[in-house]
Amino acid sequence: MEPIYLDHAATTPIHPEVIKAMIPALEDVYGNPSSVHHFGRRARQFLDEARRIAAKSIGAQEKEIIFTSGGTEADNLALIGTAIANQHRGNHIITTTIEHHAILDAAKYLEKRGFRITYLPVNESGQVELSALEAALSEETILVSIMTVNNETGVIQPIKEIGAILNNHLAYFHTDAVQAYGLLPLSVNDLGVDLLSVSSHKINGPKGIGFLYVKDGVTIESIQHGGQQERKKRPGTENVVGIKGFAKAIELVMIEMQDRNKRYGNYKQLFLNTLDEQTVNYQINGVHTIASIANLSFPGTNVESLLTNFDLSGIAASSGSACTAGSVEPSHVLAEMYGSANETTINSIRFSFGAANNEQQIKMAAEKVAAIVARLTKDNDIR
Ligand SMILES: Cc1ncc(COP(=O)(O)O)c(C=O)c1O
């Protein structure tokens, strides 16, 4: 029995067209894009084309795209790079308690270096309240970083409304759009964001590549030092193979966005409907969520036994963000939504749907989940 992959929020399979697009960059376009000769110029062409495609996908200019090694680096560069370059204007940064650790840990790093960080709470629905942001803003605030879609719950944040509030404020606005990009249309001008992070491996591209959008005029300082690449904001020889594959993945996702949204949303609905048919006791964590993610709490169970039993029956899901998956730590996101003592933080599973799925698999996976949950809750009742 083939295992069923329901962990697309952790990473996605590479699209066959993306693999095909990368082959020339692996086989014969091996020049260094910084070299002026023929070999370098060919590699530079790949880079220029990819930058055009990436910029177009969010309504940006080519010079506003900085290729990075992925979402984590884009987030670190956005937070630390902006903080350092703008510390003469103030030392206050606002983010949320439910960000990915790429943001939370970068914020902690800045705190140790004298920056003051406000972590906005979320309500039970998993959303940041605009009034809390307004109350936290001060003349000292130089940066606000709020994710577009949460990676554990799939909850969509009110980015456009936040952008409108910050329009009247000197603080720059960064959004980690890693889980949103490719499923939600994102126009940087429309959203009013100054910086935006994207990762290739969440959209069926290769791992280890991403980009940070930095609006023209926003000053950031490089967090690494070396060559002149990426307008000196991200020195280091570019990952031409990864960038070539990423560009293809972007092209495909821009054409297929609506279709993918519909397909993944249908998978989610089918999964939930099947659980309902089997009368499973569950609760959906988060309101107003992206099509691809369902975070479900199963009362009377716990994450470790759920994940172990799922894995034994060939179902790959996750307890939260990939970096903490498998660990016994309760979800920091659910703890913020419901309180750290709430049972939900230790009995919830993230199922995320995508290109590796079909309807038959989804139904079968939900039936297996139902049987496992029934068995585990019965075991607990007996004890
Ligand atoms: C919201 C969010 N931000 C950042 C990252 C990190 O991206 P990467 O794996 O490309 O470093 C992830 C990956 O799980 C994510 O979900």
TrEMBL record:
InterPro entries: Aminotrans_V_dom (IPR000192), Aminotrans_V_PyrdxlP_BS (IPR020578), Cysteine_dSase (IPR016454), PyrdxlP-dep_Trfase (IPR015424), PyrdxlP-dep_Trfase_major (IPR015421), PyrdxlP-dep_Trfase_small (IPR015422). GO terms for molecular function: cysteine desulfurase activity; iron-sulfur cluster binding; metal ion binding. It is an enzyme of class 2 (transferase). Its cofactor is pyridoxal 5'-phosphate. Keywords: Iron, Iron-sulfur, Metal-binding, Pyridoxal phosphate, Transferase. It comes from the Bacteria. Its EC number is 2.8.1.7. PANTHER family: CYSTEINE DESULFURASE (PTHR11601:SF34), CYSTEINE DESULFURYLASE FAMILY MEMBER (PTHR11601). It comes from Aquibacillus salsiterrae. Residues 4-363 form the Aminotransferase class V domain. Belongs to the class-V pyridoxal-phosphate-dependent aminotransferase family. NifS/IscS subfamily. NCBIfam families: PRK02948.1 (NF002806). This is cysteine desulfurase.
